[in-house]
Amino acid sequence: MKRFARHALPLVAMLAVIAACTDQALIKKRMISFPVSELEWIELPDSGGIKYANVRGDLAGESPYEAFVLFPAGKSNPYHYHSRDISTVVMQGTFYAVVDGERTEYPAGSFYFLPGRLDHFSGCAEGQDCLLFQYQDEGFDLVPQRVKAKAD
After folding, report:
1. Keywords in UniProt for this one (predicted)?
2. Quick one: average pLDDT of 120-134?
3. Residue 22 pLDDT class (50, 70, 90 cuts)
């Protein structure tokens, strides 16, 4: 029994080290890293200059995504809704949303969550381009609606 223990314990220790290294390799393989210099910006067609850079998934696809979105300063979206919930972090500039005639401004550092199918205006205030980080559990859409109120 002593002979078995003398050989088994180092073997178990070695296997534990190998397993830990393998776990770290698997974890590192799942890591996603996009330095700003490696972002690939794509302009949304017919958007007036709005661009996005995917970091996971594809904003223009039908699946979950995470992406940076760049709005030119002063750019406003038409009255619309999104079919699914959308979460946004404002990283630069001042983004705004107008819901039921009430305008709320979101300066850099702000977070907002819009439930799916909530009619609203949105856009980037004058003065500085808006850099956003957005994510959704399913693909992005923008469904125009009849104008009920005018954006500020």
Report:
1. Signal
2. 96
3. low
Residue reference for tokens 């393989």: 29
Beta-carbon contacts of 109 under 8 Å, excluding residues fewer than 6 positions away, are 90, 91
Q: From CA 1, how far away is CA 9, in angstroms rounded?
A: 12
d(CA 20, CA 45): 47
- For the purposes of burial, counting CB atoms within 10 Å of the CB of 27, is it exposed (0-12), middle (13-18) or buried (19 or more)? exposed
* Eight-state DSSP code of residue 13: H
Closest CA to 93 of 79, 78, 109, 77: 109
- 36-144 folds as Jelly Rolls (2.60.120)
Cβ pair 152, 97 in contact under 8 A? no
Chain centre to alpha carbon of residue 117: 19
Cβ-contact 152, 105 below 8 angstroms: no
d(C-alpha 122, C-alpha 77), whole Å: 5
Domain range annotation of the chain: 1-31, 36-144
